[in-house]
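Hello, quick one for you while I still have it in my head. I'm working through a protein record and want to make sense of it properly. Would you mind checking whether the tokens look sensible for this chain? I owe you a coffee for this, so here goes:
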Amino acid sequence: MRWLLRAFCVSAAAFAARINYLHGAEQGVLVGWGLAAVTMLGPLFFEVRQWVLTLTADATDPRKRAEEKARAKHDRKRRRHHKDVVKLARQLVSAAPYGKLAFEEAFATAWEIKHGTCSPGMTPKLHAQLHGSRKALAATFDDANGSRYLRRPPQNKDTAFRVTWTVTNGTAKPLDLDSWSINPQGATTGGEVTFFYVEKGSKQMTGRLAPDRNGTYTGEYSLPKSDGTEVVVTAARMDDAFLKDDAAYLAEDPHWTGPIK
């Protein structure tokens, strides 16, 4: 677009220079060439001025300029790849009070509306592929010696149990669930639990949780019967905001103790 405007300006200036040359040539050839040159010098010096300003801006903050270019390129790709989601996100922004809803938050909400998941980029097809990959991974662990992951149900010497928990996002931003983990252990003698895969009724904690939403998730484990029937469940968080908060990072992780029912 910029080069098209430049070509138009040069064409208009050349046309005007031609007219001035013809009028000036009536007084003399030098007069004609002088008027034509003056006509062309105006747009030329303006273009040089714009060029110098651009170079000055790039030299003043090249990192910011590079970031702006990268962001603009990313926005173009997003509009091209996800037109329907971008359109809905813009509608959500325009419907909200001015300044109340950022576009990135609106995009995450629009993605959930269109694809049923609050993890931008994920679709039902990709979630199915992820589920299949996790099943294959569980099978691989099951075949490995000493693995803590089982594909088959626990044996008679183990007690199988399911941990169910609910996460509430009380913030104004989507919550990255992949930065959280739930870790159970035996509470009686400190026995180590074994993970195993259950398809029916299981819901793994992954993706992102939208603001003001609740999500209920499960984990399936087994504990040797020799280690009792009490377990302690610890919630761990490992995102960047948590790691930068010294008070939270050094504090004891939240945990709960209870019997296997």
Remarks:
- The longest strand covers residues 158-168.
- The beta strands are 149-150, 158-168, 175-176, 180-186, 194-196, 208-209, 214-224, 230-237, 255-259.
- Residues 64-115 form one domain.
